[in-house]
Amino acid sequence: MKKTLLLLMLGIMSMTQLFAKKLDGYFINKEMDTVNIDVNVPFKLTSSIPDFEKLQDKVKYFDKSTGKKGTLYPDEVLEIGFSFGNLEIKMLSRPYFSGISSDNHDGIFLHLLIDGPMKMFLRYESGMTPLGDSHSRTYYEEIYGFQREGEPVHWVEKSDFKKDMQAYFYDCPDLAVKIYKEEFQENKLRSIVEFYNSKCQ
User: Fold this and answer.
1) Separation of alpha carbons 71 and 186, rounded Å
2) Strand partners, 111
């Protein structure tokens, strides 16, 4: 019974990954060359938004001139991007170890939300959490990160947001004060980064 339930849940989860779209894109290799490609972007049946979580580990693509298939890993290139409607999506390669490597490759492609002296990234996670008595629940989480030039990505600490952000923005007292006074709260992360990039440089 337990095995049947597990197989059923895995089957349902896999059915949400049944198609991909070929979108105009590129990658930048470690020699800083830009290569134009068609990115094979995965979508879930229940969403019109690209499945960014799947793209974090590896990106499948087609060579524009030959049509040959290929796969890009975070430790092989600096950046990948593609056009999605009116949006230009960028995902940058960053060091990251989650405990599970993709085909013996390290690193992660992070969705870039804001570029500048302070970058803002979004990381996606989903899975199953055991609840005991053979029960479990699925979860999906979007985790935001900030990065100054030359520093590792700092993942926003939700459980102690004010203290975490005040400490992180030690180099911008005006911003730290606004966070302390709760003028900038957890729901205004984009405004925090935009303030830093425009007022703290």
Assistant:
1) 36
2) 91, 122
